[in-house]
Specification:
Elements (H helix, E strand, L loop, with lengths): L5 H15 L30 E7 L2 E10 L8 E5 L10 H9 L3 E5 L17 H15 L5 E5 L1 H12 L6 E5 L7 H4 L6 H8 L4 H11 L10 H12 L3 H17 L13 E6 L22 H11 L4 E5 L6 H4 L1 H14 L1
Parallel strand pairs: 3-4, 3-5, 5-6, 6-7, 7-8
Antiparallel strand pairs: 1-2, 2-4
Organism: Methylobacterium gnaphalii
InterPro entries: AB_hydrolase_1 (IPR000073), AB_hydrolase_fold (IPR029058), AB_hydrolase_sf (IPR050266), Epox_hydrolase-like (IPR000639)
Keywords: Hydrolase, Signal
């Protein structure tokens, strides 16, 4: 399904990418394992129509790609889905279908620096800035008081959104968010932008797959995960590899230096935590001293601590799932999500 319109999309992407300065887009291979995509994922199709929000931020023109899926039988509520570091709006496909089927309008943006959105050469990345960008997009769309659902890095962003706009956030849902512990304070050594860039330029389909198998899917692998591996790997096979890697380095630095754990008690909106118990995610763990590594990324403990920290929050645990429960077992996750936000 994702490849059905790729040839047409790629010809359009050639023109767009040249205008945006991203260089020529390589022809997409019929084999996803060798396909190369443009720096804004030109050549890779999403399962829903992609729209663009053009705006000015930090004195430069940017565009933010997003999905806006309206239900056949609306219930008057909007769910906003915020993706993680190695994810895109498209990876919420199952949740978009489930939520829209339950009557929710669903808005799922690609944040600046990610996926089909702009990759600026110079940008002061912060969770506040990304939250402000998202708030501006929702204002343009006329969305008020959304249910904000964030996964992984998107969970950190969702928490900041609720902190910035508590009176404009109906509910907050955090799905295996990162930032629930301060890795630097626990002993992960400082990592420079140059180091992040060097690491990111080595990204390959194999490195993505191995990491995701270990953390996202609790050691299990299914072929249905492979398209999302190739989505990311295709960015690093494309002509915008350096551009993509530089933005990724800036984003890793943002994640490491802006943990949200200290502000959790300040969240005042109704909050639902959805935590895969076999998650072991801790960015920079591989660089930590041997005695520090075993202390990082214990989500059974982090989930419970977060539930205690956020006043009145509710915790749903998935005993056999890892960092991406919404992808490992979408049927169970979607049911728990829809039931959870209905209870409030």
């Amino acid at each position: 399904m994702l490849a059905s319109k790729r040839n047409l999309g790629l010809s359009i992407a050639l023109a767009i990418n040249l205008v945006l300065g991203g260089g020529a887009v390589q022809a997409a291979s019929s084999d996803p394992a060798t396909a190369a995509y443009g720096p804004e994922l030109q050549g890779f199709d999403y399962p829903f129509p992609v729209e663009r929000y053009e705006f000015t931020s930090q004195r430069q023109p940017l565009q933010m790609a997003y999905l806006d899926v309206r239900p056949d039988h609306p219930n008057g509520q909007t769910a906003v889905l915020l993706h993680g570091k190695n994810f895109c709006a498209a990876t919420w496909e199952s949740q978009i279908r489930a939520l829209s089927g339950a009557g929710y309008r669903v808005v799922a943006p690609d944040q600046i620096g990610f996926c089909k959105s702009s990759k600026p050469a110079a940008y002061q990345f912060s969770f506040r800035q990304l939250a402000e960008n998202t708030h501006a997009l929702l204002g343009k769309l006329g969305v008020q008081n959304p249910i904000v659902i964030g996964h992984s890095t998107g969970g950190m962003l969702a928490a900041h959104y609720a902190l910035l706009y508590p009176k404009e956030t109906a509910q907050l849902v955090l799905v295996n968010p990162i930032g629930l512990e301060d890795w630097s304070a626990k002993g992960v050594p400082p990592i420079s932008l140059a180091q992040w860039l060097e690491r990111d330029l080595k990204t390959s389909a194999d490195s993505i797959r191995n990491y995701e198998k270990a953390t996202y899917y609790a050691g299990h692998w299914e072929e249905r995960y492979e398209p999302w591996v190739q989505m990311l790997a295709g960015l690093y096979r494309g002509p915008g590899k350096e551009q993509v890697a530089w933005n990724s380095a800036l984003l890793y630095d943002m994640i490491m230096t802006q943990p949200v754990v200290y502000r959790l008690p300040q969240i005042t909106v109704p909050t639902l935590l959805m935590i895969g118990q076999k998650d072991i995610t801790a960015i920079g763990k591989d660089l930590a001293p041997a005695d520090v590594k075993p202390t990082l990324g214990h989500y059974p403990e982090l989930g419970k601590a977060t539930a205690k920290a956020i006043p009145g929050s509710r915790l749903v645990e998935f005993p056999e799932l890892g960092h991406a429960p919404q992808m490992s077992d979408p049927e169970t996750f979607n049911r728990a999500l829809i039931e959870g936000i209905a209870k409030r």
